[in-house]
Each structure stands twice: as C-alpha cells, then as structure tokens.
Design brief:
By secondary structure, the protein is α+β, with helices and mostly antiparallel strands. 11% of the residues lie in helices and 22% in strands.
C-alpha cells in the first residue's frame, strides 16, 4: 500500500527572510523542440540560456503538503562555495557555468565504466515532481518542488558489482568557471557519498529541475541528487562522476570538519551540531520579510516512516 507523507503543515505567517539552503547554479535550459511530454525527455539540441519547462508528473506518494518556498528565494540564497562563500554569490557568479555539453562518468565497482551525457540521463526514466523538505545544518529549512526520478534507475543501468557497498558523487571543479575553487575552505572537487542502500531508496532523487523548470546553475545544474532525510550538504550538485566503492568514501565536509559533519548526516534533532542546536529550525517560504518562529525539527526530516528501518540498531549519536 502506498504511503503519503504526513508532514506537519506550516502557517504562512511562519516565514523567514532569505536564510536558505540550495547549492549551486542557475537556469540550465532545455529547448522545447521535440519535447516528449509523456516521458519528460528533452533533446540535446535544445539546451539554452533561458529557463525552460520540464515535462513531469507529480508524485504525491513522496510529496509534502506544506507551503512551498518561493522560486525566487530558492534561487537567490545558496550554498555553493565554488562560486563564493556569501549566500548571494552563487546567483551572480554561476552564470558563467557551461552546462552543455555535460557528461557523467560511471566508474569503480561496475562491470564496465560508462559515460552518460545529459540527454541519455533524461531518457532513463520518466520525470516526476516531488515536493521535498530540505533542512540545512545551520538551522533553516525550505520546501522545494524538485523534478527528476529515483537515482536507483541510474544505478541499475550502471551494472554495479555485488562487492559495491557505497556510492561516491564528484562535482565539477573547474577554476576557469568557478572563481572560488582556490579557496582553502574545502578540498576540491566537492565530494559526497551514500551507502548503497541509501542511494537505492526511492526517495533519493536524481534531480534535473525545480518548480517545473530546468535547474538553475546556482542550484546544481545540470544534474544533482536530492536526499531529503539528510542535511542539505549531502545532496551533491553539478555531478560529473559517480564511483561505486567497497569502502566508505571520504567526503568534503567530513574531511574538513569531522566533528561537525558526519558521513551519515541524517537530520536528527537529538544530535546537536557542536556550535548550535538541531532541535528546531526556521522555515523559509520567501513570502514574508519577518523572521519565522522556530518549529520542531523532525527525525529524518519527517521521513522516518520511510527510511528509519535502514538505520535499525545503529547508534545514531555515533553514526551522526
């Protein structure tokens, strides 16, 4: 029987100014010529520099019923250190990012290394719109209508060997396009990872758009993942390489500050960040300039009924 998420509704008055999360990149565009509405496919000749619509169906099974964060807020306040450390930097600096052509290399514990261009990825499965909550480790959250399909579709197409236990995501690191790539705050390229069962979970979304349009560059164009029960930095953006491994991969924030950013990084109101509490959050909708009142943070960001069984028996204070 299909389950619908029963996440708490947020009063429209409970809003914040842009204090948001969303990493990376501006509107990467597909053109409409030859659009296959039934599958959400877009031909490679159609990429443009203006926002274009993505054909998709809404997946109510995995969607929150909460008030959406505005598109303007989602795309104007971002964490994307390759384009600057200030939250307003990516929207300005990511405009130079070239998203066509774009390929994603599949390597590691697979039968044979593969390369998928963006059009091949788009054809792999029908597009869906899923409204996910996104919780930032810094204490604010958003509700975002993403467009994509379950990452498991790509994993199955990658012919992964049975010895693979983890998946590693590597983002673009091009100093010619990313002016802050020389910053010492992280070791580049940006790298993230999941346990393979986490990556195969149907909630884990290979994401190509938001608000029915292709991803803005500051939000991770042209392809990213979205893992809604984990803190936002786990959702790798602008992915150029996916590697399957037997051992847990090293990830950028865990390497930079292991006491603050664990490998799992499941949203857990009972495990505080060393510098602030994780028990509450402030919801950003973008429709009001007032600071929103704090709301309680839910275990696994409200997705516990769907993902909690993956962590049965684990000490979630140790494996934070």
């Amino acid at each position: 029987m299909k389950q619908k998420l029963n996440l708490p509704s947020i009063n429209p008055s409970e809003i914040t100014p842009p204090e948001i999360y969303a990493r990376r990149r501006e509107f990467m565009a597909y053109g409409a010529t030859g659009l296959l509405a039934s599958t959400g496919l877009i031909p490679n000749s159609a990429w443009a520099d203006t926002p274009q619509k993505l054909s998709k169906k809404t997946n109510s099974q995995y969607s929150s019923m909460e008030t959406l964060t505005t598109q303007q807020a989602i795309t104007s306040y971002n964490n994307f250190y390759e384009f600057g450390t200030d939250k307003s930097d990516p929207a300005h600096n990511a405009k130079i990012l070239k998203t066509n052509p774009w390929v994603v290399h599949i390597e590691g514990l697979v039968k044979k290394p593969k390369t998928f261009d963006i059009d091949q990825l788009l054809k792999l499965a029908p597009m869906e719109e899923r409204i996910y909550r996104l919780r930032c480790v810094e204490g604010w959250s958003m509700v975002i209508p993403w467009v994509g399909y379950s990452l498991s579709n790509l994993i199955r197409a990658s012919d992964v060997l049975g010895s693979a236990k983890y998946i590693e995501f590597i983002s673009l690191a091009d100093p010619a396009q990313m002016p802050y790539i020389s910053s010492p705050v992280l070791k580049w390229p940006y790298t993230e990872g999941l346990r393979l069962d986490e990556a195969m979970h149907p909630l884990t979304l290979l994401t190509f758009g938001l608000y029915g349009e292709v991803l803005p560059k500051q939000n991770g164009a042209p392809v990213r993942i979205t893992v809604p029960w984990k803190y936002g930095f786990k959702s790798a953006k602008s992915i150029v390489k996916i590697r399957f491994t037997e051992h847990q991969p090293t990830t950028s924030w865990n390497l930079a500050a292991p006491s603050e950013y664990g490998f799992y990084s499941n949203v857990n109101p009972q495990v505080n960040h060393p510098r602030w509490s994780q028990a509450t959050e402030r919801r950003i909708t973008g429709t009001n300039s007032l600071i929103s009142p704090k709301i309680k943070t839910l275990p696994f960001n409200g997705y516990e009924q769907l993902v909690g069984s993956m962590y049965a028996g684990m000490d979630l204070h140790k494996y934070y």
